[in-house]
Design a protein that fits this description.
homodimer, about 375 residues, alpha/beta, Rossmann fold, 7-stranded parallel beta sheet, 3-stranded mixed beta sheet, 12 helices, about 40% helix
């Protein structure tokens, strides 16, 4: 199938583009490269030295014999987006092309507004491009488990059946997102749902958990294909950040008590979930929601697992409970469903000491590149 | 109290500004005047000849002896908004300053994007202006009953208590808005809720029904204070539009079967509801939701009421069931709660033949100004 991967130069996007290409799909990437620009602006950098996108794609062709199309530009520019759609004629579009950091969106008013405008307008443009020219194209959109917040009831996949005053309906699951970034994804979900209803668009919203790991079969096959790995206080997510902190002897930065439970998955499962979604498209007019994660952990549990894995490697790992820069519950109920992708064939890579070892080893390999001044959180939700 | 009315030159905003001023509040208006510009762009016009905002405010001072401050500018410009906040030092801000037409937002991609960016960014800016300089200022934000859609269960005021798998929580009421405009209000509600949670902002979201009527005590006290009255296919809302259509012998434009049930209120209740909200501010950190309407009617019921009122005035009124330009259910359950404002003292003006007479008489008075070519809907939800 012809697949357009928006945001194909990013962490999840790059791994997905290569995986889909290796599985025989005809892949084209759209990316504005703004993620690299934000690294420059913030003075941070991926742990792993990533090659320019053009070089990455050339090398992939050398390694695999497969071509990936490249379109550098911003999807908030509709004329650009529309012209790429017409060149690529996609059967599916995988949309990773959003500002994806909660702390980035909380830096200040400008970053909050930029995040919401970028994400909402980009997604609206994708919806119009589909409606206008490729009404049968399946939109696979990256959402986040963070859209749900931490309700005191079980989290279903996108919808919940409510009985109320003797009547019953199945309605969109109530959303309680925890940052202006997470809010932008909630806005997207509502907009996409509406487009499915009025235009018959087929869409799958992948409410993804926190992704960890750096190697997939494809990105690990050549040094030039290596994926990015972020550890800084803005773009670094929990488990990846902990492993890198452990590798350089920096105490693990647990925010508050660490009782925050979140949903996680291996990046090798991210790419597989996207493939499953593409191979099993939503019906015309259907807004389908999959919760895309494999396991639930509390943050303090993760920290202890890294500590234990470190011990077996002879690395002493300390844990620091920092004052929580976010406003969030640190002890709460959290139980989310994830049966849809499993029933479509996902076979999870579960988090294990072995994986922690591999991530830790990776971090050790590149530890000379770590800038310790970037590790602590600098963005507060309160001020 | 010092009250800042954003969108104070609009239909609800102007009536509210005068009412609050007459009740002794110190009122300042912010308005970009873009609503008048959109009339020009679309080639439509209010039935009633409205004076320039500067003249309106001068005349109000002549009639009442009370001054209203005027700040012409766009709240998506944060520097402008922030400087007005610092001049006015508001204890409450009433935010009507959004693009408020569903058909306008459905004209094309550009109008959808413009509506969402304008509304979302404006409201984000208001939230930051409150947080940065006036953390105790009460935000009274105009939402819409259309945020809820038409669920098959009773509509509560903003939240619903859900029992699920043996556990219970009170969560934001699920939203199913029916246009990119209504979606923008849902986005706003989520953003405001979050700001209350993390910054302790006090906010009241007024989920308002369809407003009808043109006269309030203040806007009726002088020809120069007259309020706008829209009847065109883009900005005209159901009952007002029907009365004006009846006055010129145009068949009433009922979309589809007309079984769509909606919530309604008299503009004299709009201004009173805002006053009630201001006089009973939300607590710090509270995101309070009031459903602001007084009665429920189906569209076809309204049409029949106008037809009957017309008969008593000797006007023959036809009803046309047009092909519905919108995508919406034409027969559905609809039962919404509205007890909060009533319990705080709202005494509703109920829709009656008398009111229909008055609206009809008003329409007859200005019928020479009607451009019949603007009456039919021109915007389709499907294409």
């Amino acid at each position: 199938m012809k697949v357009l991967v928006i945001g194909g130069d990013g962490y999840c996007g790059w791994a997905t583009a290569l995986y889909l290409s290796s599985r025989g799909h005809e892949v084209a990437i759209i990316d504005s490269l703004v993620r690299r620009h934000w690294d420059n602006e913030l003075g941070v950098s991926t742990l792993t030295p990533i090659a320019p996108i053009q070089k990455r794609i050339d090398r992939w062709q050398g390694v695999s014999g497969k071509k990936i199309g490249l379109h550098v530009g911003d999807i908030t520019n509709y004329d650009f987006l529309s012209s790429v759609f017409r060149q690529v004629e996609p059967g599916a579009v995988v949309h990773f092309g959003e500002q994806r950091s909660a702390p980035f969106s909380m830096i200040d008013r400008e970053h909050a507004v930029a995040t919401q405008v970028n994400n909402v307008v980009g997604t609206l443009n994708v919806l119009y491009a589909i409606r206008n020219d490729f009404p049968d194209c399946h939109l696979v959109k990256l959402g986040t488990m963070g859209e749900y917040g931490t309700p005191n009831i079980d989290i279903e996949e996108g919808y919940i059946t409510i009985e109320h005053n003797g009547r019953k309906d199945t309605l969109p699951y109530p959303k309680q997102p925890g940052s202006f970034y997470h809010l932008s994804k909630v806005h997207d979900s509502h907009n996409i749902h509406f487009a499915c209803k009025i235009w018959g668009v087929r869409a799958t919203d992948l409410n993804q958990g926190v992704v960890y790991g750096v190697l997939t079969e494809e990105t690990g096959s050549d040094e030039y294909l290596i994926n990015r790995l972020d550890y800084d206080g803005v773009f670094g997510t929990a488990l990846n950040r902990f492993c890198i902190q452990a590798a350089v002897g920096h105490p693990l930065t647990v925010y508050g008590k660490g009782g925050q439970t979140r949903a996680f998955l291996d990046i090798r499962d991210t790419v597989r979930c996207v493939e499953i979604a593409i191979n099993n498209p939503a019906d015309a007019g259907e807004f389908r929601v999959f919760n895309q994660f494999t396991e639930l952990f509390s943050i303090i549990d993760l920290a202890h697992m890294v500590q234990k894995a470190g011990q077996t490697m002879g690395i002493k790992v300390e844990i620091n409970n920092l004052e929580n820069p976010r406003v969030e519950l640190e002890e709460h109920y959290f139980n989310a469903k994830n049966t849809s992708l499993l029933s479509l064939g996902l076979q999870p890579h579960l988090l294990s000491d072995a994986l922690l070892d591999s991530l830790l080893n990776f971090a050790v390999k590149y530890r000379d590149r770590i800038d310790q001044s970037q590790i602590l959180p600098k963005v507060s939700w309160r001020r």
